[in-house]
Design goal:
With 155 residues, this protein is of the alpha+beta class. The chain has one domain: Cupredoxins -  blue copper proteins (Immunoglobulin-like, Sandwich), CATH 2.60.40.420. It is 23% helix and 39% strand. The strands form 3 sheets. The protein has a 6-stranded mixed β-sheet. It has a 3-stranded mixed β-sheet with strand order 3-11-10. It has a two-stranded antiparallel ribbon with strand order 5-8.
Length: 155
């Protein structure tokens, strides 16, 4: 019976160590942002463009692969300003920077929304980290109710 208890204890200990190792490998997109961004291959960065118009995002679904470097280009071709609000998505990525071409850039650990003026453009440089499906939407007036909503998928 002693051997059975020892074997049972050993199996339990191994399972606990295995669980701890899995937890240790989980990346925190915000706390580990600098390392995640530094380790990304920016030479192989993929560009995804989403166009904002009155009451729509086109395309209204974008899929990203965890660990890959991306530039998300947000172009407002509408006559009104629009938001690209996605708080859960922004917490699931490691942000390198947000750039308004020829105007400046912002470096911050995360944001909750980006506002794009008519005929304006913002570029979000990031690495997706936490897999899941996230909603993006415009918070101006009734834009979301009229269909200005999308899905951002991290695989």
């Amino acid at each position: 019976m002693n051997m059975t208890r020892i074997a049972s204890w050993a199996i339990s200990a191994l399972m606990m160590v295995s669980s701890l190792a899995a937890i240790a490998e989980t990346l925190d997109p915000i706390a580990q942002r600098e390392k995640i961004v530094a380790d990304a291959n920016w030479k192989e960065m993929e560009t995804v463009t989403i166009t904002l118009d009155e009451h729509s995002y086109s395309p209204n679904k974008a899929t990203f692969k965890a660990g890959k470097a991306y530039k998300l280009v947000l172009k407002n071709v509408g006559e009104k300003k629009h938001y690209f609000t996605a708080p859960e998505f922004y917490m699931a990525i490691s942000t390198r920077k947000i750039e308004a071409p020829n105007q400046g850039e912002i470096k911050a650990p995360h944001v909750i929304a980006l506002e794009i003026m008519p005929n304006g453009m913002l570029e979000l440089f990031f690495v997706p980290v936490t897999k899941g499906s996230y909603t993006s939407y415009c918070t101006i007036e009734d834009h979301r109710k009229q269909g200005m909503e999308g899905v951002l998928q991290i695989e």
